[in-house]
Automatic annotation (TrEMBL):
Keywords from the named record: Cell cycle, Cell division
Any one Gene Ontology cellular component term annotated for this protein: cytosol
Single Gene Ontology BP annotation: cell division
Keyword Transmembrane helix in annotation: no
InterPro entries with a match to the protein in the record: ARM-like, ARM-type_fold, Ataxin-10/CTR86_families, Ataxin-10_domain
Pfam families noted in UniProt: Atx10homo_assoc (PF09759)
Protein's name in the database: Ataxin-10 domain-containing protein
Length: 431
């Protein structure tokens, strides 16, 4: 049954059609009435009150409905959606989100549909959508981008999306937006998984999130940095969550990604300034332990990465889980790899390192000949004054807690050493 043209201008009428379109039977009824064609031709002239209702109707009609998806593309629906941004009127986040959902539904129909969406919206309108910096909008945008970068033609479009001169700003804006601690939907993980873990673009995205970016003439990204930003750590945590949540995708992890993460770990170990932890954080708390397959295990050994990982098996006050992640990484690194196991077995215990802090306490580190474990011993005789001073500093550090000055924190962080030192010192005085 055809409806009068004026009906499509009434919000109440369009909303009734939206409710009807939520079920397969309702969509079949609306299809018979030609609802899609009737609402599409009115999109560009829609006023604010009825626009969102019309978009929702189009979205529902194109959800898993091949005939409507085809009709949408054939009737110029992609251009009509783009016209929403050309009216000159303010566009709400809800409108933009619904537009993205329509595009995602249409793009899922096949290569011709993905190509039509990509040709009209990439990169200009996708960039405009990402620049709204709204988490809900970005989640819907990820649905469109992930769908367009899948199946036939997907690899080429993924390359365009991660090209520094074209689509990379879109990806970076999405990551910045989602790093605010909001809920992340599966399409966000899948998009980053395609670009960073299955593809070869992890380094480009990671460097693009640095505070210092230099674009070279070839369109690539060359980045020099001495700090690691919170957003970079967020990217690593997101990819770690991806591996945990979708373990079935482990077989598609690229060698490029695994070695790139190892390179980040190397750089972090050499350039992170511990004194600026409040503004920047080290990404060494994360390592893709699940990606260490045989080939990657061998490459890490050849690049002297085993000792680097072993150096991370320490207690880090800023990253409590660093030791656990590093230990698990070493386990995966050695699992089933005899060459790596022999490499570790060949390691010999070196002379203990005596740091300046330990020396100032009048201590030295020795290796017990029986247990082969390190122990703290007195380096020289001590006085009651030294013992009392150290006891005072220890009590002061414990009382001050995390708000103490740097010197007190050093003592607090070495609390067990101080206690052992005091005990040995007082015994020496008693004798």
């Amino acid at each position: 049954m055809e409806h009068p043209a004026d009906d499509y201008d009434r919000v109440e009428f369009v909303e009734s059609m939206v409710n009807l379109s939520r079920t397969p039977a309702g969509r079949a009824r609306l299809n018979a009435d030609g609802a899609l064609a009737g609402v599409l031709c009115r999109l560009s002239s829609s006023t604010a009150p009825v626009l969102i209702s019309r978009l929702r109707l189009v979205r529902n009609l194109c959800a898993d409905e091949p005939a409507n998806q085809d009709a949408f593309v054939e009737s110029g629906g992609v251009d009509r959606l783009a016209s929403v941004f050309l009216t000159g009127l303010p566009v709400s986040t809800e409108v933009v989100r619904t537009v993205s959902q329509v595009l995602g539904n249409v793009a899922s129909a096949g290569e011709a549909h993905r190509a039509a969406v990509w040709a009209r919206f990439f990169p200009v309108w996708f960039r405009k959508i990402a620049e709204m910096y709204d988490p809900a909008v970005c989640n819907s945008l990820c649905m469109v981008l992930d769908t367009c970068c899948s199946a036939t033609g997907g690899r080429r479009r993924l390359g365009e999306l991660c090209d520094a001169g074209r689509g990379l700003p879109i990806v970076l804006d999405i990551v910045y937006t989602m790093s605010r601690g909001c809920h992340k939907e599966e399409y966000f993980y899948w998009l980053l998984g395609k670009a960073c873990m299955e593809g070869i673009y992890f380094t480009r995205v990671f460097q693009g999130l640095s505070s210092t970016i230099i674009l070279d003439g070839s369109g690539g990204v060359d980045c020099t940095y001495k700090k690691f930003s919170n957003v970079q750590v967020f990217l690593l945590e997101t990819l770690s969550d991806y591996l945990t949540g979708w373990p079935g995708y482990l077989d598609s992890i690229s060698k490029h990604f695994a070695l790139s993460v190892l390179q980040v770990l190397k750089e972090a170990s050499s350039v992170v300034d511990a004194s600026s932890q409040s503004n920047y954080v080290s990404p060494t708390c994360w390592l893709g332990t699940d990606i260490l397959k045989k080939q990657v295990q061998d490459d890490i050994r050849k690049q002297d990465g085993i000792s680097l990982l072993l150096q991370q098996c320490v207690v880090d006050e800023c990253w409590p889980l660093l030791r656990e992640w590093a230990t698990l990484s070493v386990r995966y690194l050695l699992d089933g790899n005899l060459e790596n196991q022999y490499k570790v077995a060949e390691l010999e215990q070196k002379e203990p390192v005596i740091t300046p802090e330990i020396s100032r306490m009048g201590l030295r580190v020795e290796v017990d000949q029986e247990s082969q474990r390190q122990k703290i011993v007195n380096a020289s005789s001590v006085s009651i004054k030294v013992c009392c001073t150290m006891a005072y500093r220890l009590v002061q550090a414990i009382c001050i807690g995390s708000t103490g000055d740097r010197e007190s924190r050093e003592v607090r962080n070495s609390e067990s050493i101080c206690i052992e030192y005091l005990s040995a010192s007082f015994k020496s005085l008693e004798s």
